[in-house]
Amino acid sequence: MSESRFAKLPKPPYFAVIFSSLRESDGNEDYDAMSERMLELAVKQPGYLGVESARDVEKFGITVSYWDSLKAIKQWRSHSEHVVAQEFGKSQWYKDYEVRVSEVKYAHGKPIE
């Protein structure tokens, strides 16, 4: 991720996958390594545009990944290593989670100077 922590994105439209999660207190030994591996794989996927992520001290986090199409999102969701990570998430790493997909039609902000 860049120093600014903001994804460098094209002008809309594009799609956002919003992954909100609450981590388990224990059973997270391999979580960081898997998270890094998923980022390594995601950036190589056709249609990947960027990611932004944050987690608080109470283990609630939000990761937003950006994609150029719904097709790209579906392909990433079914990537074999990502499927394995999803199963670990359900069985060991997350107490609760939600995935939402939305289309970004407009975006603006204040660029970092």
TrEMBL record:
<protein>
    <submittedName>
        <fullName>BA75_00795T0</fullName>
    </submittedName>
</protein>
<feature type="domain" description="ABM">
    <location>
        <begin position="36"/>
        <end position="87"/>
    </location>
</feature>
<dbReference type="InterPro" id="IPR052936">
    <property type="entry name" value="Jasmonate_Hydroxylase-like"/>
</dbReference>
<dbReference type="Pfam" id="PF03992">
    <property type="entry name" value="ABM"/>
</dbReference>
<dbReference type="InterPro" id="IPR007138">
    <property type="entry name" value="ABM_dom"/>
</dbReference>
<dbReference type="InterPro" id="IPR011008">
    <property type="entry name" value="Dimeric_a/b-barrel"/>
</dbReference>
